[in-house]
Amino acid sequence: QLRFVESGGGLVQPGGSLRLSCAASRFTLEGYSIGWFRQAPGKEREGVSCISPSGTSTRYGDSVKGRFTISRDNAKNTVYLQMNSLKPDDTAVYYCARCVNWWSLVPNFPSWGQGTQVTVSS
Predict the structure, then answer these.
(1) Pair 7, 21: CB distance under 8 Å
(2) Do 2 and 108 form a contact (C-beta atoms < 8 A)?
(3) CA torsion sign, 114 to 58 to 90 to 82?
(4) How far, in Å, are 2, 56, 76, 92, 100 from residue 109 at the CA level?
(5) pLDDT score of 93
(6) What mean pLDDT comes out for the span 21-28?
(7) Banded model confidence at residue 26, pLDDT cuts 50, 70, 90
(8) Which of 58, 68, 82, 93 is deepest in the core (most CB within 10 A)?
(9) Is 50:70 a contact under the CB 8 Å cutoff?
(10) Beta-bridge partners for 118
(11) CB within 8 Å of 118: residues ≥ 6 apart
């Protein structure tokens, strides 16, 4: 199974920014669509963003469109999520996983890792 290590979360005030990183453990990300997913307390996990294997195509959930940017550096085997203009509703544990395809925001039989906690609060 593909395993990922997420990092970069933390406590930030509303309107602030964070950059999350997703590194692959013992395999190469190149060739896969990779995405970010999040789960807030008491809510189902939702797709945030997915990126194509080359990085040229991206998809965002409606709630983050215009505020979040996904990118990847295949040479570093890492996918990033730049989060700007954060809102309290963005508070969740963020996970990365393969996407079924870059436009679907659906995880592809994921083995969820630890995730990284993002808390937006004043």
Answers:
(1) yes
(2) no
(3) positive
(4) 10, 23, 24, 21, 8
(5) 98
(6) 88
(7) confident
(8) 68
(9) yes
(10) 10, 92
(11) 9, 10, 12, 18, 20, 38, 83, 86, 90, 91, 92, 93, 94
